């Protein structure tokens, strides 16, 4: 096999591993053996360990990808001409990507400098998206960027029981309800204080 062919095969294996790891970890739990990931991906254990020496490295890579996708979704939302539709696009994309599905590993893995950098950039863009919606009067003024991030986390949780078409239908209905609940002015005030950035980051460990 040529060098280009080997590189293409390695890229395919890596993509298969990442997809399998996300599926296994978010459905079977983060204690699932890496052998289950290799089996799901259809690759050997050697291929897995050549790319990721430890489970932590694999989880770090998955988290970084989720953060990068969140950044892309926030940028796409900000590029939308309509403040509400841009915000809704961001929320729907986060739910579709299940970008918050890896949140339960917070505090259990080391957060790399690149992860902090991308996460903070994604937060900055999302904050601009939320501020624009507030200024346009379409987002209730007691909802913060972190409220929306945590809402996406909740929708990223796997549904109980075996996969079924009804799960996605129910999720889309509830997401529509949630989006309507974000619209200004809001029927009732939200209870308690909004989540703080310090608490949100502290879940992942000490920031550099």
From TrEMBL:
Q: Which Pfam families match?
A: TetR_C_43, TetR_N
Instruction: List, in alphabetical order, the Gene Ontology terms for molecular function in this entry.
Output: DNA-binding transcription factor activity; transcription cis-regulatory region binding
- What keyword terms does UniProt attach to this protein? DNA-binding, Transcription, Transcription regulation
**Where are the bilayer-spanning segments?**
none
Q: Which PANTHER family match?
A: HTH-TYPE TRANSCRIPTIONAL REGULATOR BETI, HTH-TYPE TRANSCRIPTIONAL REGULATOR RUTR
Query: Does the keyword section mention RNA-binding?
Result: no
The record's PROSITE patterns line, in alphabetical order, gives: HTH_TETR_2 (PS50977)
Source organism, top-level taxon? Bacteria
Q: Which intervals of the chain are annotated as region Disordered?
A: 185-208
Q: What is this protein called?
A: TetR family transcriptional regulator
Bias-annotated ranges (Basic and acidic residues): 199-208
Q: What is the lineage of its organism?
A: Bacteria, Bacillati, Actinomycetota, Actinomycetes, Streptosporangiales
Question: Which residue numbers delimit the HTH tetR-type domain?
Answer: 11-70
**InterPro entries attached here?**
Homeodomain-like_sf (IPR009057), HTH-type_TetR-like_transc_reg (IPR050109), HTH_TetR (IPR001647), Tet_transcr_reg_TetR-rel_C_sf (IPR036271), TetR_SbtR-like_C (IPR049445)
């Amino acid at each position: 096999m040529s060098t280009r062919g080997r590189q293409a095969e390695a890229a395919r294996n890596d993509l298969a591993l990442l997809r399998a790891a996300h599926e296994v970890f978010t459905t079977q739990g983060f204690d699932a053996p890496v052998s289950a990931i290799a089996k799901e991906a259809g690759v050997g254990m050697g291929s897995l360990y050549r790319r990721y020496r430890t489970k932590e490295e694999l989880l770090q890579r998955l988290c970084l990808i989720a953060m990068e996708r969140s950044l892309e979704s926030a940028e796409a939302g900000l590029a939308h001409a309509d403040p509400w539709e841009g915000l809704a696009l961001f929320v729907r994309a986060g739910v579709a990507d299940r970008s918050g599905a890896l949140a339960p590993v917070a505090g259990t893995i080391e957060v790399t400098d690149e992860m902090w950098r991308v996460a903070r950039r994604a937060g900055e863009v999302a904050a601009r998206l939320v501020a624009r919606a507030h200024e346009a009067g379409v987002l209730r003024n007691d909802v913060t960027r972190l409220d929306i991030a945590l809402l996406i986390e909740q929708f990223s949780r796997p549904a109980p029981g075996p996969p079924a078409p009804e799960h996605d239908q129910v999720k889309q209905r509830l997401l529509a309800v949630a989006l309507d609940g974000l619209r200004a002015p809001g029927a009732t005030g939200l209870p308690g204080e909004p989540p703080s950035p310090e608490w949100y980051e502290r879940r992942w460990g000490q920031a550099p």
